[in-house]
TrEMBL record:
Keywords: Amino-acid biosynthesis, Branched-chain amino acid biosynthesis, Cytoplasm, Leucine biosynthesis, Magnesium, Manganese, Metal-binding, NAD, Oxidoreductase. Its cofactor is Mg(2+); Mn(2+). The gene is leuB. This is 3-isopropylmalate dehydrogenase. It comes from Desulfovibrio intestinalis. The lineage of its organism: Bacteria, Pseudomonadati, Thermodesulfobacteriota, Desulfovibrionia, Desulfovibrionales. Its EC number is 1.1.1.85. Homodimer. Pathway: Amino-acid biosynthesis; L-leucine biosynthesis; L-leucine from 3-methyl-2-oxobutanoate: step 3/4.
């Protein structure tokens, strides 16, 4: 099969980790007789420096014309003092919005090969962790209006708007219920309906949607409790359905239970058009350019691209197996290092995965 992939390496460790993912995709294509073509475009700080805009029009049209988009990460201290509209992060938010990528799937799994890197007590870790955060991605305080900083009563005042309409809630709830049916049939909707009107509507609409999914077990949890339950007993969760900001925070928390932020992939999809596949972590400026970043979240995002974007389940399985094999063989990057294992850099870890395909 022929597929075109738009690469958005971005900033910080972005180019290093995307290079490893591309190696894995090329080796997979060769093995299965596919033809993957790659075109690179600017986003984030790299695009601000190169084109004066965190999301140049040329990038949007390259993305629209591709079968899938593969993103590293954006942002860094160099651009932290720019106005919000010009920050690297705005490039990522805009591409999600422009392509209608409202559903962000973030699977978190505790691989047996990495049990030793899990930060939880061993009896809790032994119960396992295999959950999926279904995070709404194009609404909430991220995009709500009005927003701004202004002077009120002589004081500098910052404000944002948490906002969802019923249609936005319905379509993400639909994704969660449908996905749960292919997993362990459980959805936990996470909100803050004891305080926020936006969350009250969220809960109401999710309950209405549930009438069509009576076979799926639905529970509701306040976000503060959910943050606590995630580390107390993560095995209780199957699908976590939540809004943009809560999903952002809870997925970073879930990642570290699996060993490291550097392990979690994600897929952002919409009703139509190409999906965007990216690790959940950021540009890690503290380790950028040192060849020490963990490329596995990015490599696993490539597997999600093949499975969800191209309907290539066998190919995706192979990549996931190769990652697990590299871990089983004792290879580790610094973030998941354990005593007695082999410490590798970003590039060598990519090589180990390719060798095991
Ligand atoms: P971060 O995720 O970049 O890093 C947090 C910590 O995790 C750092 O110590 C980092 O070294 C470590 N880490 C992250 N990825 C790693 C990997 N693959 N291997 C090993 N260690 C890894 O979050 P931050 O430091 O809060 O943000 C840095 C920049 O990234 C900011 O500009 C932020 O806005 C941006 N950001 C971008 C994305 C994205 O592009 N999707 C996501 C989160 C943050
Ligand atoms: C993520 C990031 C982004 C988000 C930022 C960089 C805009 O943290 O992809 O998780 O908050 O969605
Ligand atoms: Mn995040």
């Amino acid at each position: 099969m022929k597929k075109s992939i738009c690469l958005l390496p971005g900033d910080g460790i972005g180019p290093e980790i995307i290079a490893q993912g591309v190696k894995v995709l090329e080796a997979t294509a060769e093995k299965f007789g596919h033809e993957f073509t790659f075109e690179t475009a600017l986003i984030g700080g790299a695009a601000i420096d190169g084109a004066g805009d965190p999301l140049p029009e040329a990038t949007v049209s390259k993305c629209r014309g591709a079968d899938a988009i593969y993103l590293g990460a954006v942002g860094g201290p160099k651009w932290d003092n720019l106005t919000p509209e010009l920050r690297p992060e705005k490039g990522l938010l805009r591409i999600r919005k422009e392509l209608g990528l409202f559903a962000n799937l973030r699977p978190a799994m505790l691989l047996p090969e990495l049990a030793g890197a899990c930060l939880l007590r061993s009896d809790i870790a032994a119960k396992g962790l295999d959950l999926l955060v279904v995070r709404e991605l194009t609404g909430d305080v991220y995009f709500g209006e009005p927003r701004g900083i202004e002077t009120r009563d002589g004081l500098r005042t910052g404000y944002n708007t948490m906002i969802y309409n019923e249609e936005e809630i319905r379509r993400i709830a639909w994704v969660a219920f449908e996905t749960a049916r292919k997993r362990r049939n459980k959805v936990c909707s996470v909100e803050k309906s004891n305080v926020l009107e936006c969350s009250r509507l969220w809960k109401e609409v999710v309950m209405e949607m549930h009438r069509e999914y009576a076979d799926v077990e639905l529970s509701h949890m306040y976000v503060d409790n959910a943050a606590m339950q995630l580390v107390r007993d993560p095995s209780q969760f199957d699908v976590i359905l939540t809004g943009n900001i809560f999903g952002d925070i809870l997925s970073d928390e879930a990642s570290v239970i699996t060993g490291s932020l550097g392990m979690l992939p994600s897929a952002s999809t919409g009703a139509e058009g190409p999906g965007l596949f990216e690790p959940i972590h950021g540009s890690a400026p503290d380790i950028a350019g040192q060849d020490v970043a963990n490329p596995l979240a990015t490599i696993l995002s490539a597997a999600m691209m093949l499975r969800l974007g191209f309907d290539m389940a066998e190919e995706a399985d192979l990549i996931e197996k190769a990652v697990r094999k590299a871990l089983a063989d004792g290879y580790r990057t610094a973030d998941i290092m354990e005593p007695g294992k082999d410490l590798l850099g970003c590039k060598s870890m990519g090589d180990k995965v390719v060798e095991r395909l």
